[in-house]
Design brief:
Largest sheet: 4 strands, mixed
Mean pLDDT: 82
Low-confidence stretches: 4-18
Number of strands: 8
Radius of gyration: 19 Å
Length: 156
């Protein structure tokens, strides 16, 4: 039993050292500037930026928005190109996935038309070709699924 605990402790320490090594590297830092429209900013709220890194939820940063302050920048660190999510506290989409890597400085516009969605892929992004690729793939997948289901309905 003691041997198992020792091995588990060593694995946990090693994984924490690995996490610290990439987290402390300035080359792994990224920045996301977010601009939101007036209806979403009509009531004060926070936006959180988080991801699952090394099997742990990592809160990268948060910013506050209101009717006067509708633009803000958040910073984070990732070990390699990674999916990160933006979460609005009250109004707007509940989850906006983006793709970032160290050195990225991207900007995203969340419009009033994006309000009310649980998950929203937004193509108003600059500075992240990988995010635009993910959004394009998701839109194509939705069109394919709609076409597929329409074909199923016609055959019955």
């Amino acid at each position: 039993m003691k041997k198992g605990i020792t091995i588990l402790t060593m694995v946990m320490c090693t994984s924490n050292l690995f996490a610290q090594k990439w987290a402390d590297n300035p080359a792994n830092r990224f920045a996301v500037t977010v601009r939101i429209d007036s209806a979403i900013a009509s009531e004060p709220q926070k936006m959180y930026m988080y991801s699952m890194v090394e099997r742990e939820v990592q809160l990268h940063d948060s910013i506050s928005f209101d009717s006067v302050h509708r633009v803000g920048t958040m910073h984070g660190t990732v070990p390699y190109e990674y999916n990160v999510n933006l979460l609005l506290q009250r109004r707007g989409p509940k989850c906006v996935p983006i793709v970032v890597k160290g050195g990225d400085s991207l900007s995203i516009h969340i419009g009033d038309e994006d309000d009310g969605f649980r998950l929203r892929y937004i193509n108003k992004v600059e500075g992240s070709p990988s995010t635009l690729e993910m959004v394009t793939r998701q839109f194509a997948e939705r069109i394919y699924q709609a076409t597929w289901h329409a074909g199923d309905l016609q055959s019955h």
